[in-house]
Amino acid sequence: xxxxxxxxxxxxxxxxxxxxxxxxxxxxxxxxxxxxxxxxxxxxxxxxxxxxxxxxxxxxxxxxxxxxxxxxxxxxxxxxxxxxxxxxxxxxxxxxxxxxxxxxxxxxxxxxxxxxxxxxxxxxxxxxxxxxxxxxxxxxxxxxxxxxxxxxxxxxxxxxxxxxxx
Length: 166
Description:
Blueprint: E1 4-9, H1 16-25, E2 31-37, H2 48-65, E3 69-75, H3 79-85, E4 90-95, H4 98-114, E5 119-124, H5 134-142, H6 153-163
Parallel strand pairs: 1-2, 1-4, 2-3, 4-5
């Protein structure tokens, strides 16, 4: 039986922290659906399809090396509904600090109330990636800073191209 996990986020852009969580999730799942949240209230720097392409390119080899199948999808509804659509019994979340924990435990509790058959599992960020957030990466890139230490090479290139001023 295949154990499927759903890993949700905006992934705008995908960071080394996201890859860290995925590496850890490979220990508990045979198939991971990376689900890009698409919400009209957010204005991402990369379109959903661009994010999906980057996720496939940088996450695919990580999961393949672990023998885990990767699927990339988008969703605009509840995570538990997306999990059901994709046959996931697990929702994967990463934790960097206490602030993340406070927010994520509330979300996990609400998800458990709505879908008791879907379990949320948390992975603590590894120390080298703990301070990385997509928000900070976007801000650094927008101000012309070097984000190569925080994101995969392909993503650093795309960010540089996105923010290059003529």
